[in-house]
Amino acid sequence: MLLRNRNLCAEIESAQIQGLRHRPNVPRRSRYPDFTSLPTSKFRLQSEDACSTAVNSGQFYTDYISYWVHHHSMEFPLTAKFKGRTGETRGNRLLAAMEADSLARIEPHLEPIEFKLGAVVCDAGGLLKHAYFPQGAVLSLLTVLENGSAIETANIGREGAFGLFAAMYSRVSFNRCLVQFEGDMIRCPIELLQAEFKQSEHVRDLFVSYSETLLAQVQQTVACNALHTTEQRICRWLLMMHDRAEGNALPYTHEFLSHMLGANRKSVTLAAQSLQTAGLISYHRGMIQVVDRAGLEKASCECYAIVKERFDAFLTPPSTAVQGDTTGRRKK
Fold this sequence. Notes:
The chain is α+β, with helices and mostly antiparallel strands. The protein has helices spanning 6-22, 48-57, 62-72, 93-96, 100-106, 164-168, 190-199, 201-227, 230-244, 254-261, 265-277, 293-299, 303-313, and strands spanning 111-112, 120-122, 130-134, 138-144, 150-156, 176-181, 185-189, 281-284, 287-290. It is globular.
């Protein structure tokens, strides 16, 4: 049972403040500079008893203030954009682009959810009951072959969602979806999105625009994997992940990259060594850091720039679009 007692929440908030003031050994997470930036998906208390125990034992942490804000303040709803350490907002662009009426109907049903790196959100052929909206996480879509091998055909960050195609009709996932980068994420029951799709022309335009953009990424990735060198493909992939990881180090091994790119391990290792020798990346103990972003863009094929341009523009109705209700969407 989720915590609902406001007085108890106030007690937690007060205790939290005192706890941080008098217990310097309690580590603050440097990733979150203030309590408004805390990702609510990680801090859901399961019962009032658990909360009381935490207060009485003096085990205070910023989690509890985050929980209080998330559940008891209209100023910070689930879809609020949390500021990251770079000062940029951390919301989901697709949700943020919805009209107020649509958002008001689905917002009470949005649910924070956690997955670890590499966790499978849904396997190919699996029945989807929710669509997933990353707010910091990155999801990878893999096409799985009969022999069990798989290759990435697209990835999804806070610009979009996984499950929108299925939400509109079949409810069956064609791809395997796994977590490529850990972070915040919320999900929404598919039935609610189906209802909004039928009811709102704005939501239909928005979902179709995103679906077209995701399909463009799939098509560009197929061409890239078939026609470009392993080094160019690694550059394209690292740039896409660097955008979504906000400059943080990327926790990937050469083995992982070889699976994502559909390349053999040796060619990935040689290409990564070449990039490191050129001073574009650094690699140490399974962590990849982009050192020279501009140089990495020059070494990449055109696929990164093409896909990025599409995602940057998908919320803007093009001049060639079928004219309808574009209220709330940016116009050129």
